[in-house]
Write a structure and sequence with these properties.
This protein is α+β, with helices and mostly antiparallel strands. Helix content is about 30%, strand content about 35%. Keywords: Acyltransferase, Transferase. It holds the Pfam family Acetyltransf_1.
Amino acid sequence: MTSVTDGTGTRRAVIRRVEPADAARMRALRLEMLADAPLAFLETIAEAAARPHTEYAARVAQVSAGPNTAQFVADPGGGRLVGHAGGIVHPTERRVTVIYAVYITPTWRGLGLLADLVSGVASWSRACGRDELMLEVVVGNDRAYRAYQRLGFVDTGVRVPHPKIPTLRELQMRRPA
């Protein structure tokens, strides 16, 4: 369990792999993610909202087990999930896990959940035989860039086009799992 303090007391969240029973909570978190940071993710809030619950349930079931893709959540218990980070095996580098869709609810930011979510993905990655993590950050998102640097990620110098918005570029960062 992760303990974090927000200045008004201690809040706790468990970092764990998603479970099939999380489908409705994952849908709510996904819609929050897209409303709060629309450039960071690969679909629009309208696309996500239009997707039926059965699709969310199928996706959550898929990432809840197995070695190729996983999603981890920060769960304070009972209500909404407050953080997310996914991992997937790199398509051409089999010893690399790509971290994707990292998000923390605004009121929980700055409390250590990012490190804990990345640690969850890293532990899973190592258990699957992958010893390196990679992620991409939109160029100009200095807050995220600095946060990942603090977690040991290093800018590789690689720049790639944003997959949805051709005028944006993303920078690649890596670190050991």
